[in-house]
Amino acid sequence: MTKTKKFRTATTALATAAVLAAGVGVAHAGTFQEGGAPAAAAAAQSGWAGITREPVRIDFGRGWVTDAELTYPSSARGRLPLVVFLHGSGHNDMDQTLPGGAGSTFVPLAQAASRQGFATLRFNKRGVTGIGPVESTDPAQLLPKNPYARIQQDAAAAVRFGAADARVDPSKIFLLGHSEGTNVAANLAADPRAFGIPKPAGVIEMGVVGLPIEELLTFQIYGRLLVQLHDEFDVNGDGQLTASEATHGLLGQPKEVAAQFRPVLLDGRKVRAATDRNSDGRIAIDAEAGPVLRAITHIDAYPDLPDLDDYTISYAKDIARFPTVSQALPKFRGPALLLNGENDIQTPARAAIVADAALAAAGNKDHKLVIYPGMAHTMNITTKYQPAFAEPDQRVVTEIEGWLKAHR
């Protein structure tokens, strides 16, 4: 693994599969309609008690029919409002299963929506054949041309499918997106007619893509390294690191992180002479460490970075053709809820603040922004620079549940 790759590990959630698609999946409760004592007991234990889970299939076109699950309160009568879940980037399954057995993003939120009388629709992304996620071996489905545009079209197909169901009120369809899904939801909501879908009744955004892809990926790959040096190494806040500060900053860091920064900052007990260009015995974080880190990460070659695969480069170029949440969502005249973690280094909280300000400037009277201290990209409490995966914090679940109840 090159130094560039080391600096990139687990930091490109928006445009690669590394964060939200890779890793070991968790056990899936199965797709079933409740019935019988064993099923009822399993449902109660898993959080699905009182909720009917109906396996369905959605034709996305171009040779792909995807597995999905429609859920609704078992006692419901009449047409119901619907929440359609839109994933983060990568080849995600319908639950948005997290790596390493850490749970899923969408299951607790679907259960919360059902408690408020909503139907929900979750679906496997194109190229995903099962929970885990399990991926197809067909490159045409895993790696389509114009990948982000195809993701938009697939999401629109899911919305149309939900709107056509006899149990769903097509005038009350809500879009809930995470990360990449926030951009997809905003694009669809901004121009529903162009996508052949009903106007959404509301939009929920988690981990908001409120800035251009190039800015976000540049931060994920390069900028966050400087931020970490300022936050965790530069104790006196003067923007420079002495040998002592660099040495102390490495203490307590994971071995891989220490191995990333040490050769940039130190040569034995002294600051690294090659980085300390003015030979004053200190390393200016931005002016001296910055150029070294730029070279290591190859960020100036963006988007044709040598350590990114062809698909990811194609994805970055394609999504850049479309408006961000801050540009698209203000065109939607409807309620919007924006949620972001303060510790998010994939889609920083500043991106959500920018998006919310754009909604206010456009005259949207029903928008809400919540920034959660201590939460990262998967909306759980964790450290900022070495985040651990987990299901959304209960405060996030409660916020979404209450918002849906108020807008039902």
Structural features, described:
The chain is an alpha/beta fold. About 40% of the residues lie in helices and about 20% in strands. It has 15 helices and 14 strands. It has helices at about 5-10, 35-45, 105-115, 140, 145-165, 180-190, 190-195, 215-235, 245-250, 255-265, 285-295, 310-320, 325-330, 350-360, 395-405; strands spanning about 50-60, 65-75, 80-85, 120-125, 130, 135, 170-180, 200-205, 240, 265, 270, 285, 335-340, 365-370. The strands form 4 sheets. The protein has an 8-stranded mixed sheet, with helices on both faces. α3 (about 105-115) packs parallel to α15 and α9 runs antiparallel to α10 (about 255-265). The longest helix is centred in the middle third of the chain and has 21 residues, at about 215-235. The protein is elongated and about 75 Å long. It starts with a helix and ends with a helix.
Describe this protein with a few key phrases.
alpha/beta, two-stranded antiparallel sheet, 38% helix
